[in-house]
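Batch job 17 of 40 flagged for manual review because the log was empty.
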Amino acid sequence: MIPKVRSFNVKSTFFVCPALILAAAIGAQAQNKVAVINIQGAIVSTKDGQKAASELNAKTAPKKKELDQKQSDINAMQDQLNKGQNTLSETAKNDLYKNIEQKKKTLQRDVEDAQADLEQEQQKVLQGLGQKMLAVIQRYALDNGYVMVVDVSNPQTPVLYASPAIDITKDIIELYDKSTAALTSPAPKTSAAPGAGSSAPSPKPAAPAAKPPASAKPPGQ
């Protein structure tokens, strides 16, 4: 019953304003360049977004299985009631009907609670991903001279039309993934060049010459 996590439901309250607007400090070089982005699509299309959705699916799988089993039990009872219309007593049919209705109400509450928990978990994940995404968008806007980037994934956006030529969603996804990969990749190991930063082992000092015994006399004496 609980829906599978295929994408995140990005609420407008997650961002600073309903339509994401980043004013880039371009100054005198600004040419009034404007871009649009589907930020919901961008977040869920990044590698981090896909990983987060997969983890949420795994986390909610036990609850989904439990709710599905409850629904199956209700269906079985409903089938029993339908087949027993001519064989069950009125008392048995009434009891079975009341039991079904009670289980339906319980299941409905469980589904609503599970959905609320899922949305809460999604928002937690989106808080982290969204902050990273905003930083990437702002850097992209500054580097490319955009004075405004508008989010068109929000149904309440005032944008009625935007040319595909100014849609930067794909570019932001690629830049986000590259930035994340650069932060998580281990630093390459460097090997010291021969003679650089290390010295050859010092040769062992020569052993001192053996002294003649004290009783020995010089030759010729």
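Reviewer: the log was empty due to a logging misconfiguration, but the result itself is present. The chain has four helices and two strands. Unflagging and moving on to job 18.
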